[in-house]
């Protein structure tokens, strides 16, 4: 990831030239990726560059009517928003595809039956599919807390983008902070201000034209 973050526009163009759909996602800090994080992991500035790119192209895709959700650019894992949706259709598409999807549209089950809140193994688990009733898991307080973005702690808890962003990747946050509900440590956004409509429009123009 670190080695090609400055080539993503070229990679997108090449992918489309070959007739394939671009698919970009940041490396999650876990297992072997964590071991070699210094070589492949992104820093805060590189995360911002990556997500500016993904956000720009995802929004363009929605507005061209080519996407109802956003798998093509995988922006769901973390996007501190820089504009507001224009209408209900756009809002629905964005809400479906943005922010951490743990216990929202994805969960995981390990080979031993362990139920994880995401597609990656985490220290925090929800039970075991071999012995637990899945309906009980879905009705558990822990499951509800994971879905509730207001449960996020730290810097993200007071951020005005939290409902969209979801506090970033829960897997990486847990790995680094030790807390599944901890704030994402690589977010560049400082929540020391409020956006007014002029700020939103200016940022929208900068992002889509830049």
UniProtKB/TrEMBL annotation:
SUPFAM superfamilies: Radical SAM enzymes. Residues 100-160 form the 4Fe4S-binding SPASM domain. Gene3D superfamilies: Aldolase class I. Pfam families: SPASM. PANTHER family: MOLYBDENUM COFACTOR BIOSYNTHESIS PROTEIN A-RELATED (PTHR11228:SF35), RADICAL SAM DOMAIN PROTEIN (PTHR11228). NCBIfam families: rSAM_more_4Fe4S. This is 4Fe4S-binding SPASM domain-containing protein. It comes from marine sediment metagenome. The lineage of its organism: unclassified sequences, metagenomes, ecological metagenomes.
């Amino acid at each position: 990831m670190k080695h090609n973050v400055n080539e993503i526009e070229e990679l997108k163009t090449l992918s489309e030239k070959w007739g394939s759909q671009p698919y970009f996602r940041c490396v999650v800090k876990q297992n072997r990726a964590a071991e070699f994080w210094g070589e492949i992991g992104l820093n805060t500035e590189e995360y911002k560059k990556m997500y500016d790119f993904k956000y720009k192209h995802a929004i363009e895709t929605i507005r061209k009517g080519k996407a109802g959700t956003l798998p093509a650019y995988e922006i769901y894992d973390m996007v501190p928003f820089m504009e507001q949706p224009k209408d209900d259709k756009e809002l629905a598409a964005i809400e479906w595809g943005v922010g951490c999807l743990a216990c929202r549209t994805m969960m995981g089950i390990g080979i031993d039956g362990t139920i994880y809140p995401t597609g990656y193994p985490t220290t925090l688990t929800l039970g075991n599919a071999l012995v637990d009733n899945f309906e009980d898991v879905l009705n558990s307080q822990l499951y509800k807390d994971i879905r509730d973005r207001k449960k996020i702690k730290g810097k993200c808890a007071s951020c005005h983008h939290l409902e969209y962003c979801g506090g970033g990747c829960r897997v990486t946050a847990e790995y680094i902070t030790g807390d599944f509900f901890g704030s994402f440590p690589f977010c560049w956004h400082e929540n020391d201000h409020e956006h007014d409509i002029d700020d939103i429009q200016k940022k929208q123009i900068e992002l889509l034209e830049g």
